[in-house]
Amino acid sequence: MVVDAGAGPVDAGSPTITVEGTVMTSKGIFVSSATVVIPGKLPVTTGAGGRFTIPDVRPPYDIAILSGVSTRATMYRGVSRANPRLMLVDGATTSGNSTAPIQLTYSGLLPTTTANTWVVYKSLRVNPGDVASSTGMASWVGTANTLAFDFTWWSTGPADLSVASLQVLKDRQTNLPVDFTFASLPSVPVVANATIPVTLNMGPVTSSVLNATVNVPAGYTLDSVTTYAKTGSHYFYLAESTTPNVAIKVPNLPSPGFAIDVEAKDNAGNSVHTFAEGLTAGGAQNSINLPQSPRLSLPIQNAAGIDVQTQWFSWIPIGPGPVSILTFTTPNLTIDVVTFDSRSQIPNLADLGLGTIPTGTTVKWDVGVIESTGTMDGVTDPALPKLATFGNWIAQTTERTFTAR
């Protein structure tokens, strides 16, 4: 038996596979000219569509990617599939996108009063919703009730947009919603650099009350509790607070859905987060429970003389299931290690063509926890929507530093 410190035991007599995968950024752009390395194999460079091929690989294997325009490397530990799709954690590229000027014109908006104020939220999603999105608060420019802005999508070809807007009338004293109007268009074709006029005829929306209680682990304090209304792939901000009890008027949009985004921290600076969807309005009491954050174990804070070739970095996990991203940051390079384990080593940088970490360098490290499919082969599944490689973040540890030997 040959033991791979990252991927686990490997049977030297087991069948080999040819790994034919792709590399993309977090924007959904497939990356050419990226470097792909499986330890023990010669590095390869991605071609058109981010494609690469590495023959004679014995699974499970570790695999690292480095964009030619980035100082950030990403390594996946323990992959077995022959067709992985690998995402650079940073997505550092600006190529392969298109922009079109959008002109939104509204009718049927509720008037403002001395007791109320209002805001209009816009949401544009590329159908089928996995390539790009644009959300934001409307501010008027030009003629009355007209909003002009540029929309960028991550493709060099034309796109089809789903467009929606929600007007929220808010009480001036409490800043809570009291009334709504809404409009949407399921299909708006766009072409790069061509001005796209869009008219939305806003109509009244009935409302319900969303009730929820947020439960945080002992020793944690709420940073924010943010409520959203949802319809299809569109989300609209409603209100934010720092209290654990939510009681808010919400709009009954087409195929309504409601979500609450919660963040909390402990005294050490560890953060936890949940994005609770599928909440029910109209009297039901929703309960939202936050997990405890993982906690860094070894090496200790400000450890000196760490041998980066042999040192194991460990943390206390929050439980099985979510994937961890262990991040090392030097003045010149960032390395992300994607793993389902609760310990890892820094990848061999020489294998990645990145040299070494010089003696005396101060390195920062932390661990983020991300919702995932529960296996590394699931995380690298090419059948996932382009932007679903990693789900919502669950927790982020405080940062530690060490000095390299």
What does it look like?
This protein is an all-beta fold and about 400 residues long. Helix content is about 0%, strand content about 55%. The chain has one helix and 33 strands. The protein has one helix spanning about 375-380; strands spanning about 1-5, 10, 15-25, 35, 45, 50-55, 60-65, 70-80, 85, 100-105, 115-125, 135, 145-155, 160-170, 175-190, 195-200, 205, 205-215, 220-230, 235-240, 245-250, 255-265, 270-280, 285-290, 295, 305, 315, 325-330, 335-340, 345, 360-370, 395, 400-405. The strands form seven sheets. Strands 4, 5, 7, 8, 19, 20, 22, 23, 26, 28, 29, 31, 32 and 33 form a 14-stranded mixed β-sheet that branches. A hairpin with a 6-residue loop joins strand 11 and strand 12. The radius of gyration is 24 Å and the shape is globular. Residues about 1-10 have low confidence and may be disordered.
